[in-house]
User: What shape does this take?
Amino acid sequence: MARFKKKLPVNPDAPLLHEDHGKPMSRRQFVRQGFAAGGASLLTGGVLSLFTNPRDAYAALSPDLDDLVGALPGCSLSAGGGNNLPFICFDLAGGANFAGSNVLVGDSGGQEDFLSTAGYSKLGLPGDMLPGQVQTETLLNPSANNDYINRELNLAFHADSALLLGIREKAVSAIGNVDGAVIPARSDNDTGNNPHNPLYALVMTDPSVRGEVVDLIGSRASASGGNSMAPAMYINPEFQPTKVDRPTDVTGMVDVGDLTSILGANDVTAVMESMARVSHYKMKAGVTTGLTNDAIIKDMVRCGYLKAADIASEFAGVPVDPIGDPLINRDVTAPIAGNPLAPFSATELANDREFRKTASVMKMVLNRYAIGGCITMGGYDYHGGGRITGENRDLRAGRCIGACLQYAALKNEPLMIYVFSDGSLASNGNLDDTAAPDGGTDGNGNTTLGGRGKGEWTGDNSSTACSFFLVYNPNSPPNLVGSRQIGYMNAGASVVTSSSPAANNVNLLVNMIMLNYMAANGMVSPGNTTAFTTAFPNHGLGNNLDSYISFGNIKV
Assistant: This one.
């Protein structure tokens, strides 16, 4: 196939204009084409510790307030994240490519049951870069067997994957203890109406486990916390994700205003406790203003004051900015002896909104103050911009995924990461040899990529779609008990819709992920899936659940 010089590179933050797409009209359309990022407004109070070391509470709540908490139905303080796996999902809005050029997807025999040459061309790989053949190119990621396949994450990637390059750059100490699985599954192109988002279902896997201050967080101010919707049957307004997409969202959740500049930490706690007592007795006396006499409303307001006092008791006077965490920002202090560098530099955090967003969400989730979070990254509707546009956006997504793995490794915490997008795209086989922009290095000192002689993305194509997840165990490689590929494509690189229940049903894809989340937590295993069927009695995955479980318990 002849190689042609294509369009000039597009900056990773530049919006995408397509001749075959109308002008964006909705928030979701703006996000997936890169016209808008995930905004930032604080919706609720309460996030918490973003400290490197376990925090010490300044003071426990006074005994009389503990009694008030016990008297309010459903009111609990500092519930804690338990020891279930922290969970982060990446919602790449617009229809990103994962299959073939990034994560390998094969026929019915698994990842390395290779597709046809025409199939790989559809997935953006030219005939001289096919997985399984003898390598002739200089690749982004080492191929140990000289076969265009990189297995460093155990889940097989193409050795020239931009997504993998980004993961490997950041997750330097997690490599070796990561594994994962890919799920070929169709979803609609260019729409937020796919019920991809699993956060509400995450709560259902173990209702006893709650976030210490908030339960769920997301970088979008939407019902799901992301670009894609959550399955309607699982949405519970009680758990709507709190919006977090920058460090000030995090610090604001435990902010007690200027009191700490006037009073000591213990005095701040006393003030907040007094507010809780006054509010309680005023309501008891029926002197509230602007509220009905409904007991439920009164209890909710009382509980809110008590939660504020509880937060003050633990966090007043404590710096909580994730930018100040030396396990996130390697320029905060000298590298900690014996530990690899933190994933981000101060320059990266200052210049890149996606890095700040990732730092904020991973800080909350991996400190177990929220049980799960969603990071939406826009601009993944990158067809029509030459191959180079998709390569550099995939590279940055990989860096964000890798940063989460690295932070988990530095904190010695397990982690599950789920990556999905609305639909996918395909190549027409034309190859892009465009050179890397900016001389191959961006303003943060990071590598930028050219087209690398791969097929340019020319149109949306839901038949090439897939999602994948990664699991990290700080102690050893995750215990593989099943397959790294759930479902399959045909030789021509189209999802076989009968290959798994989720292959043509997005909300069942959420159930598939939750089945594997529960397995990684030791709640279910092959031959023992009762906990899953109890949590999701109408799961729709059929009776052969064992065949959809990839890993065993990885909790530490």
Remarks:
- Residues 386-411 form the longest helix (26 residues).
- Residues 86-228+324-548 form one domain.
